[in-house]
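Subject: Protein record for review, amino acid sequence with backbone structure tokens
Concerning: The relation between a protein's sequence and the shape of its backbone.
How to read it: Take the token row as a discrete description of the fold.
Enclosed: The protein record, placed directly beneath this head.
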Amino acid sequence: MLSLTGALLALALDPTTAAQAIAAGDAHYARRAEGASAGVARPQEVDTAIFEYRRALTIDPNAFDARLRLLRAYFFRGGFCGTEGREQVAIFNEAKAVAEETVRLLDAQTGRSKGRVAAQAGEAVPSAAAVYLWAAVSWGQWTVAHAASAAWQRAPARIRDLSQAALTLDPAAEQAGAHVILGRLHTEAPRVPFLTMWVDRRKGLDHLRQALSLSPDSPQIQFFLAEALLKFDPSRTDEALGLMRRCSTLHPRPECPVEDEHYARQARERLADIAAARR
């Protein structure tokens, strides 16, 4: 991917407006699935989208629409392009840095303080719920890449607070994404004394159920809820397997073909493992 210095040099040669750069980024992001295979995308289109969104920010650093799209593109680049090792860690590090800078700017606009935000605060920035949500996602990916140190840097609490802000502003934003993140946080984070003793498996299941009620056609929610039920509520095994089968057979939605196929493949693999274990 092009460095920020490279983006600044390109800007000097091409005085595009922020809106034009965002539109160009959107066009490339919409083509992110071209050439994808088995739930893994080629990186060229999303890399160009990232370049355009960063270019928009060199023009207007306060463009929350560009920041939102940039965080979303980093998520896709790091998670759905077969990226591994140092390259993946570098992407997650950069996403977290952008997320932190974005949250500082957004907090000043919404008045969020001590992790709390008023429900009407989104009137100042219409995309605020989605921005907080994608900031939480960026922290989540960074946490996966830095598992050994994340808890001690209070990453889980940071993810919780950002997701809660998004939930307060708009529970349905980004396919009920705040409920999804809180659900996964409460069902996957370890309970570490003095750091994450607030983690509650039952709350996690409740959040995932609420997410499914708001976005019933989302394969990822079906997969995450099924996995959580299998792990924490064995009495719901039949329900979990039903969700897993549903996820495994859903036709990918046009707006997120790579992402949906990714979770469908995971569901098929999980079902195969379960069947093998029962033999």
